[in-house]
């Protein structure tokens, strides 16, 4: 269970639908993450409907970017495992939609 929102792409083959950063932020990909990157947004604009005040820090998670069996990662090669706090602009290609969530007990892989 998680409190995020899964956004599904069109029904294409894995590794085809591009995933881009929704907002400027600092990207991290932990050393053991095959399909996930996170972006830290330190000065997010106000979103009153979501209860976010101007200047709050939020994180966006981009995940499931690997083959169903975990054999291939679709994260962009610009962000190898171990990337930490790398600035990216909105619209930067992060990778491609996959169909892998890791182990049932660890869905951040």
Description:
0% of the residues lie in helices and 30% in strands. It has no helices and six strands. The strands form two sheets. It has a four-stranded antiparallel beta sheet with strand order 4-3-2-5, with no helix packed on it. It has a two-stranded antiparallel sheet with strand order 1-6. A hairpin with a 7-residue loop joins strand 2 (25-29) and strand 3. The chain is globular, with a radius of gyration of 14 Å.
Strand content: 25-35%
C-alpha end-to-end distance: 15 Å
Tally the structural domains.
1
Characterize the quaternary organization of these chains.
Answer: single chain
Note the overall shape: globular
For the largest beta-sheet, the strand count, sense and barrel status come to: 4 strands, antiparallel
Radius of gyration: 14 Å
> How much helix, percentage-wise, in residues?
under 10%
- Major sheet: order of its strands? 4-3-2-5
Structural class: mainly beta
Order of helices and strands: EEEEEE
Indicate the low-confidence ranges by residue numbers.
103-109
- Give the mean pLDDT: 84
| Tally of helical segments | 0
Count of individual beta strands? 6
Core attributes:
109 residues, mainly beta, four-stranded antiparallel β-sheet, 6 strands
Task: Write the topology of this structure.
Layout: E1 18-20, E2 25-29, E3 37-44, E4 56-62, E5 83-88, E6 93-96
Antiparallel strand pairs: 1-6, 2-3, 2-5, 3-4
């Amino acid at each position: 269970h998680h409190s995020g929102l899964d956004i599904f792409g069109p029904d294409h083959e894995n590794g085809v639908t591009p995933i881009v950063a929704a907002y400027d932020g600092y990207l991290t990909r932990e050393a053991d993450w095959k399909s996930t990157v996170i972006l830290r947004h330190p000065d997010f604009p106000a979103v009153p409907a979501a209860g976010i005040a101007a200047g709050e820090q939020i994180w966006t998670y981009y995940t499931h970017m690997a083959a169903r069996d975990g054999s291939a990662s679709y994260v962009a090669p610009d962000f190898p495992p171990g990337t930490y706090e790398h600035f990216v602009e909105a619209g930067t290609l992060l990778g491609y939609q996959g169909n892998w969530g890791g182990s049932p007990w660890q869905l951040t892989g």
